[in-house]
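Supplementary Methods. Inverse-folding protocol.

Structures were first reduced to a discrete structure-token string of length 70. This string, shown here, constituted the complete conditioning input.
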């Protein structure tokens, strides 16, 4: 992987509700002002190795099939 994964699409990403540390990663147990994958890269020099994409929501699956939403 040659760029940081998009935390927003990862199963481990959470929004904290804390304005000073709005993002969290459940895998690394961190809260941060930047996306956690950026913190991982700054701390280790490597991109996050445990990104896991969230399953597509039903509406996204329907759109992938070329279907219409009601
Ligand atoms: S596991 Fe990696 S990609 Fe997923 S939220 Fe944490 S830092 Fe971001």
């Amino acid at each position: 992987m040659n760029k940081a994964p998009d935390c927003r699409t990862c199963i481990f990403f959470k929004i904290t509700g804390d304005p000073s540390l709005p993002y969290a990663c459940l895998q690394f147990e961190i809260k941060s002002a930047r996306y956690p994958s950026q913190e991982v890269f700054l701390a280790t020099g490597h991109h996050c190795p445990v990104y896991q994409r969230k399953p597509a929501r039903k509406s996204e699956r329907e759109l992938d099939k070329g279907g219409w939403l009601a």
